[in-house]
Task: structure prediction
Amino acid sequence: MKRFKGNFYLYLTIVIIPLLFLGLYFGLDILKENDFKRENQAKWIASIYKEQWDQFISETVTSLEILSITARENLDSPKKMEPLLVQVNQNDPRYGGLYLLDSKGNLMAGTVPLRTEENFSEIPFIKEVIKAKDIIISDHKEVLRNNQLVIGLATPVLDEKNELKGILVADLRIDYMKNVMKVLTPDTKLYVVNGGDKPILEMNVDRNEIYKQKDWVTLPMNQLPWNIKVKIADRDLSELGLAISQIIFIILIITHVLYLLIEYIMLRIKTKKERKENEIHKLELVGSLAASTAHEIRNPLTGVKGFIQLLSEKYTKEEDQYYFNVINSELNRINQIVGEFLILGKPTAQLMNNVNIIETLNELKPLIVSEANAHNIECKWLLPDQPVMVKCAKDQMKQVILNLTKNAFESIESCGTIQVKLQLLEQECKLEIIDNGKGIPEEDIEKIFQPFYTSKATGTGLGLVICKRIIDSFDGKIQIYSTVSVGTTVEITLPIVKNK
Result:
């Protein structure tokens, strides 16, 4: 139940909460990006139609200016202009009609009269042309007899003295531009308004939408004082749903990978902790066993050794002495193992003092050199000149050094070299015992500090465990680095005692 709660809170922290926050963040970002995209799409459509209208008006003005040159020369016989106006009107489907008026606005010639019978001079944009002598476009749409919706555009016919001699009028078909728009974007909602914001052309919109100015893009025309308004398309819920689902799916994958990774790391930490606790438990069991049985074993051993001594004095034959020596050797070995058990059980039994580690090494140097010579091994010493003080139990420190050098000797099969190297660092000292022996396989490195693990035929598997237990009691660290057929380095770091 406890593990389930732990997993639930971890899952809630790593997966659920990030999913909610990141999903909301990226969801809002997707909506914002979608709004921006739809607005740009509407602006793009408006720009296309703006260019269409500007081009339409510009081409019409150019056409009327060309016609005005011909009209200027035929004002005395305006009937000659009718065939030309009819031909232009028939050749260009954008025109609903073309007319030639005199300077007062009276009809002189034109195409098929689709306009209602009216006096051109009374039409507001014609009056403006007469007054301004400039090109004027009507600001409202008109209905012809055939129900065509048109916008009137008038250009003045001027003489050399810039006097108004006539007016050319073109009816521009709104339905033509509307059809062009429907071909390009049939579903787009848009409308065109004049300078007074009154609709001139509408496509796919009703009056209610026109008066709702929200979600519309407005773009002014260049050739006219008009604006094109394009409705921003509604959100595509299926597209948005797919995009948000993809983001949520990616977030789920990432958060679950992270969750599994953290679970794996926590499991490794827990396994390592349990393994360490098991090792501690083993040592505690061994220590308890040592504390309860060591003295009981040593007492009879002392008696046995005494009687063996007496027997060796009584039976002096060479063959008997050989047997006594073997018995004494094995008794000493038993006594050594019992001593190791005692140290394993109580590694901090001795009183710790400030010890000069260099002095300790120099005291052990003759023993180590003698053992090295016996094994045909060269021993090198690299020690600093100044004292290096550490807080430890001197005898236990000697035991660690002797144990490690003994292992180094045993790892060298014929001849080789051992280095005893001490370095003084800022807060600690580092003692290294380096050999060029056969080395330790990589898979065995993690096992060498486990109780009773040994690669030797006669080993107890307690030597390195005792060394580690002793160094740990000195607040130090012991680490072993080894490569098969290259050698082994044992590194001990101990905090130094600074002179006050």
Residues 237-314 form the longest helix (78 residues). Residues 102 and 166 are 4 Å apart (CA to CA).
